[in-house]
Write a structure and sequence with these properties.
α9 links the parallel β6 (about 250-255) and β7 (about 275). The longest helix is centred in the N-terminal third of the chain and has 56 residues, at about 5-60. The protein starts with a helix and ends in a 5-residue tail after the last helix. With about 500 residues, the protein is of the alpha/beta class. The protein has helices at about 5-60, 75-90, 105-120, 145-165, 180-185, 200-210, 220, 225-245, 255-265, 315-325, 330-335, 350-365, 380-385, 400-410, 420-425, 440-455, 455-470, 475-490; strands at about 60-65, 95-100, 125-130, 170, 190-195, 250-255, 275, 300-305, 335-345, 370-375, 390, 415, 435-440. It has a 7-stranded parallel β-sheet with strand order 3-2-1-4-5-6-7, with helices on both faces. α2 packs across α18, α6 (about 200-210) packs antiparallel against α8 and α10 (about 315-325) packs across α16 (about 440-455).
C-alpha cells in the first residue's frame, strides 16, 4: 500500500471517529434546544393564563410601567406621572400599574410625593407592585462591569415583576431595555419604551477609544492601552446586545434630538421611533416675576438635579471657587454671591456623594457660600428659583435637561453644558435673541458666570424674557399631546 493510500485510509478512519463523537453531541444539542423551546412555551402559556385570569376578574386591560425608582423625585419620575395622568384622562376603562422597588413607603405616600415635588395629582389611583429585589440593579452591587451587571440584574427584576402581574401593555419608562424581550416574548405583551438616556452610546465608545478620563472611565483604565482596548471590546459587544434588546419595542419614544441620534444608531428602528420632549412644569414658574435685579445685595446661583456622579456637582463647586478667587476673595464681595445645590437623593450612595461634596466645599474654603437643599418640596424649589440670578447645569451630554428648562421658565439666566440636549434642543436662539449661555470646563464656566454678573440689569432681563418665551414648547400640554399620539398604536391593540 502506497503512502498516499495509507494517508487516505487514516483520514477516513479519523472522519469516522469524529462522526461517532459529533453525532451524539449534535443529537444532545438538538434535544437541549427542543427542551428549551418547550420550556419557554410552557412559561409563556403559564404567564398568559395568569393574565387571562386577571382579565376575567377585573374585566378590563392593564397597562404597566416599569419604574423601580418611582419615588426618586427626578425628571424621569415627572415623565412617569405626567404620562400616567395623560393616559388616565384619555382612557377611563383601563387599569394602570407601576412596578417599583421603593419598599420603605406606601403607594399613597408615593403619590403624595409626586404632588409635593411636581405639583401632579392623578385623576384616579394606580396600583403599585412592590419589587423585593431592586438591589439587583443598584450600581454599587457591580463595582466592575457595571453596565452588564445592572442589565442582567434588570432581567431578574423584570422576571419578578412579570410573575407578580402580567400586563396587557408594558412600558419601560426608566431605561431597562433588557426587560423588553422578557415581557414581549415570555409575557406575550405589547411593549413600549421611553428612553431618557441610552445605556451605552457612541460617545461612551469614543471616550474609551480616545482614552479620555471621565466619571465612568477612571484614570487607571484611560492610562492603560490594554485595559482601554479590553473595555472597548466589552462596550462594543454590549452595544450589540443593547441594540437587539431595544429593537423588541413596538413603540420607542426618546426625549431629545441627542438621544434620538444614539438610539437610531443602536436600535435601528426608525419607523417606530419618535421624539417626545419630557414634560416641564413651565406654567408653574410663570408667576415668578421678571424684574431687573440690579439692586440685589446677593446674587444666587442655583443648580437643580439629582446628586448622581454624571451631574458633575464637583465642576460646579470648583468653577464657583474660581469665580470667588477672581473676585479677589474680599469679604464683602464673597457675601454677594452664593451657590445653592438642589436635588434628590435616591439611596445611601447618593447621600454619601453629598457628604463628599460637602467635604470638597470645606477643602476649597467655600462651605459658607454653598448651600445644599435635599429632596425639597415644589414650593421650596420655586422659592429658591425666585431668589436666584443664574441657573447652573454641568452634566456632559445631558440627554435632555428638565432642570435647565425649569430655570429658564422661572426667568433665570441659564448656564448649561455645551453638549447633549441643552445645546441641541433647549438653549437655542429665540426669534434671534439670546436665551442663555453654554460652557464645557471649569474656566469657561467661571468666565460665563463673570460675564453674566457683569451684564447690565436690562440686558440680563432681556435674556431672561427670551428664555421664558422659548420654553413654551416643553410644557406639560405639549408632552401629553405628543405622548398620546405616540402611544395610540399600542393603546388601540388593547381589547376592552
Amino acid at each position: 500500500m502506497s503512502a498516499h493510500d495509507q494517508l487516505v485510509l487514516c483520514l477516513c478512519e479519523l472522519t469516522r471517529l469524529l462522526w461517532k463523537l459529533l453525532l451524539p453531541l449534535l443529537l444532545l444539542c438538538v434535544l437541549l434546544v427542543a427542551v428549551l423551546v418547550l420550556l419557554v412555551l410552557a412559561v409563556r402559556l403559564w404567564l398568559q393564563s395568569s393574565r387571562n385570569a386577571r382579565r376575567a376578574r377585573e374585566g378590563r386591560p392593564t397597562v404597566a410601567f416599569f419604574h423601580p425608582y418611582c419615588n426618586a423625585g427626578g425628571g424621569g419620575e415627572r415623565v412617569l406621572w405626567c404620562a400616567i395622568r395623560a393616559l388616565q384622562n384619555r382612557y377611563a376603562d383601563i387599569n394602570f400599574v407601576v412596578y417599583t422597588g421603593d419598599l420603605g413607603v406606601t403607594g399613597q405616600q408615593i403619590l403624595e410625593g409626586a404632588r409635593q415635588r411636581f405639583n401632579i395629582v392623578l385623576p384616579r389611583p394606580v396600583r403599585f407592585v412592590f419589587l423585593q429585589h431592586r438591589v439587583l440593579v443598584e450600581p454599587s452591587l457591580f463595582p466592575h462591569f457595571t453596565l452588564l451587571g445592572q442589565s442582567v440584574g434588570s432581567v431578574f427584576l423584570g422576571w419578578e415583576a412579570l410573575t407578580e402581574l402580567v400586563p396587557d401593555l408594558y412600558v419601560d419608562s426608566m431605561g431597562y431595555a433588557f426587560t423588553l424581550p422578557l415581557f414581549r416574548y415570555l409575557g406575550g405583551c405589547s411593549v413600549g419604551s421611553y428612553v431618557h438616556y441610552p445605556t451605552i452610546s457612541t460617545d461612551m465608545l469614543s471616550v474609551v477609544r480616545e482614552r479620555n478620563p471621565r466619571f465612568n472611565n477612571p484614570d487607571f483604565i484611560s492610562n492603560s492601552l490594554f485595559l482601554s482596548a479590553f473595555k472597548l471590546v466589552y462596550y462594543c459587544l454590549f452595544a450589540v446586545l443593547y441594540g437587539m434588546a431595544g429593537s423588541c419595542s413596538d413603540v420607542i419614544m426618546v426625549n431629545s434630538s441627542w438621544t434620538l441620534d444614539h438610539i437610531l444608531s443602536l436600535w435601528r428602528s426608525p419607523n417606530r421611533t419618535s421624539v417626545v420632549y419630557p414634560p416641564c412644569d413651565v406654567s408653574a414658574f410663570l408667576d415668578i416675576p421678571l424684574e431687573e435685579d440690579g439692586d440685589r445685595k446677593c446674587h444666587s446661583i442655583v443648580s437643580v438635579g439629582q446628586f448622581r456622579p454624571e451631574k458633575d456637582h464637583r465642576l460646579q463647586i470648583r468653577a464657583f471657587k474660581k469665580v470667588l478667587d477672581r473676585r479677589k476673595e474680599g469679604l464683602g464681595v464673597r457675601q454677594a454671591l452664593k451657590l445653592v445645590l438642589i436635588g434628590g437623593c435616591r439611596n445611601q450612595e447618593d447621600e454619601d456623594r453629598v457628604l463628599m461634596l460637602r467635604g470638597l466645599c470645606q477643602e476649597l474654603g467655600v462651605a459658607d457660600r454653598v448651600e445644599f437643599k435635599l429632596n425639597v418640596s415644589f414650593e421650596e424649589l420655586k422659592r429658591q428659583m425666585s431668589e436666584a440670578t443664574i441657573g447652573l447645569h454641568t452634566m456632559w451630554n445631558e440627554h435632555f435637561g428638565i432642570g435647565v428648562v425649569e430655570c429658564m421658565a422661572a426667568g433665570k439666566v441659564i448656564l448649561a453644558h455645551k453638549s447633549g440636549g441643552p445645546k441641541l434642543d433647549i438653549v437655542r436662539p429665540f426669534e434671534g435673541g439670546q436665551t442663555g449661555f453654554l460652557a464645557d470646563n471649569e474656566d469657561s464656566y467661571a468666565d460665563a458666570i463673570e460675564q453674566i454678573l457683569a451684564l447690565p440689569p436690562d440686558s440680563r432681563l432681556q435674556i431672561r424674557r427670551n428664555a421664558r418665551q422659548s420654553v413654551a414648547r416643553f410644557s406639560d400640554e405639549e408632552f401629553e399631546a405628543c405622548f398620546l399620539a405616540a402611544m395610540e398604536p399600542l393603546m388601540g391593540t388593547l381589547e376592552r
